[in-house]
Sequence to fold (126 residues):
Amino acid sequence: MASLASSASSRVASRRAPCALSKVTPKAAQTASYSVPGCSCTVCPAFHCPARFLLQGTRGVKTLDFAGTEEVVYERSDWPLAKLHDYFKSDTLALIGYGSQGRGQGLNARDNGLDVIVGVRKDDES
Fold:
């Protein structure tokens, strides 16, 4: 029980610890990876550091460029299950081919309450 109290108190202390952010130079920002770029914290773990949120985008509908073709991409939060059921209420999804990934995606759609037909080649195991 004492170990639980000490670990809880150390977590609270690490959350309250000041987070020392170093300045990110433009060159470093251009070559930054998806890690915590500008954080030189040794006191608090990276998931408590506010620098982690500096380079992340916002959630929601986005337009992404895939090899010159712009596509609108939606996140799960934009399509709750009730909205998904309402949108596809009179439709049946048909997945043809795509190997094991198509089958997996079809099963996922079926598990979410959608009508799905998965088409594969005759005598195919996928």
